[in-house]
Amino acid sequence: MSDASAYFSSPKGITVLWVGLLAAPVAWALHLGAVTTLVGWACKSGSVALLHLISLLMLALALVGGGMAQRCWQRLRQAPPGSQVPVLKRSSFMALSGMLLSGFFVLVILMQWLPVFLFDPCIVR
Q1: CA gap 125, 107 in Å, rounded
Q2: Looking at residue 88, what is its pLDDT?
Q3: Cα torsion for 10, 15, 16, 18, to the nearest 10°?
C-alpha cells in the first residue's frame, strides 16, 4: 500500500477529503442564511460592517476548503504511476470535486456580497 493509499484510508485523510469537499457549500449556506437574516438589523443600525464581516469569513472558509482539496489533489498526484487502488480513485474524485465546488461557491459568495457594497440594506425591507 502506497503512502497516499495509507493516508486516504486513515480517518484523518478521509476527514480532510470531506472537509475539502463540503466546506465551500456549507460556507455558502451559512452566508446566505446569516446575511439574509441580518439585513433587517443592518437597516435599523445603519451599519453594514457585520454583513461585510460575515461575507469575508465565509469567503475565507470556502477558500480554506478549496486549499485543503487542492493539497489532497497534489498528494494524490505524487502516487506512483499505474496505482489504480479504489481508495486513490475515490480520493481523486473527492479532491477534484472539492476544488471545483470551492471555485464555484467562492464566486457565488462574491456575487452575493456585491449588493452589500452597492445597495442600502433598507431597500430590501
Answers
A1: 26
A2: 87
A3: 130
